[in-house]
Amino acid sequence: MQVKVVKAAEAVSEPTEEDANFGEVYDVRSISREPDEETFIPVQDRQFPDLSPKGVIIGKLNVLPKLSFESRYNDNLYATNDDETSDLSEHIIPAITIRTLQDRHFFGLQANAEIIKHLEQTSEDRENYFVSAGGYFEARHDLLLPYNLTYTVNHQNRTDNLSRVFTREPLEIAELVAEAGVAYKPNRIGLSATGRHIRKRFDDGVSLQDPTVRVVKSDADFNTNELELEATYEFPVNHTAFIRGIAGKTEFEDSIYDDGSNTYTGTFRDSVNGRILAGIITNYKGIVLSDIGIGYATADYDDDTIEDVSSFAVDADIDWNITKLTTLGLNVTRSIVQDNEIIQGIVQTAGTFAVDHELQRNLLLNGYITYLNRDFENITREDDLYRLGLGVLYRPSPYFNIKGEYIHTNQDSTLAGNEFDQNIFMVRLTGQY
């Protein structure tokens, strides 16, 4: 048995900047059996032995170092609809992955950083950090105790600032996520429970337009404690039905800050949150791999002046190997989110359609189209974001690879001045062992 892994980045975000998570982190929610030998996997996940890094064996550990150098041109650095500012940035991205070689009592650690330097807009320079340690204890062959601890320091992307009140320097965000649970699977039935603590902290700053004006972001500091329960049933030949429920409480450290009067308004966004999904995980002969859940989500705010939010919820991920060389991917999510500058909840719907093609074993082409809709509750505002990405990855040896990518982003909004277009060109050279 092995702990299920999940990708660390989503297509709705830019693939490198502000994320810097280039490996995999462990999902403590579930465990899965090894796939059948004949099972195919999506093009983007294939690891050919002659092109994969081997790492360094130290005792019972496998150490895999990696170092990337990236050049990126952004024609609208601040994501504005006028007075667009372009700039070139250089990124240095060191990373290391350490994992145990044995399956029992598995442990893995991943750490990386992203050092960003701009040619002209030096106030945009920043450093991001990420470290994650996790694994599981195998109490018995059918009883695992998974755990994971992740700490991230990154900066808010200008395109993700919903209030359009920009700080002079990028907003630093620190997040700690601690998870621990139990997964029991004696036969076709599986049961798991996971406790999760999330701690998120925001730095304050000054206005980009007027450095004498204070911009308070720390009123968004919050703690969330939640419990996730899941029951699964495995049908013959790689089909698993599941029902998953999450209930938790979010508490903010401070109330909303009023820039006009330099005071806190006394409005706290504390809420009780719930989410339930039912669905099926399928691996049909390695041709279609899907994880589809549909259900309901709700956010019940303690303050009666904030309108409660509820919506149907979706979490679907489908990969279809239409040929041995081409994979079509579809990811759809619908959930309730909370932004640090918006009082009420936001119903966010996102969908990404991707194509990955193996032109040769060492030459991959990929493209994706993303649509993201933010529906702001209790106000007449709605944002629509569209993103197109095209990329090529060349892997001449297991020790280095070269990637090029073009990303176009367009946002429409009912909020005046919230529209923008942005084009990014990126080239990255990665060395690994």
Key traits:
433 residues, mainly beta, 18-stranded antiparallel beta barrel, 25 strands, globular, disordered N terminus
Task: Describe the structure in your own words.
With 433 residues, this protein is mainly beta. The chain has one domain (2-432): Maltoporin, Chain A (Beta Barrel). Helix content is 0%, strand content 63%. It contains no helices and 25 strands. The protein has strands at 2-7, 24-32, 56-58, 61-74, 87-100, 107-118, 126-140, 143-155, 172-184, 189-202, 205-206, 214-215, 222-235, 239-252, 257-258, 263-264, 271-284, 288-301, 309-321, 326-337, 346-360, 363-376, 382-397, 400-413, 420-432. It has an 18-stranded antiparallel beta barrel. A two-stranded antiparallel ribbon has the order 1-2. A hairpin with a 7-residue loop joins strand 11 and strand 12. Residues 1-26 and 29-39 have low confidence and may be disordered.
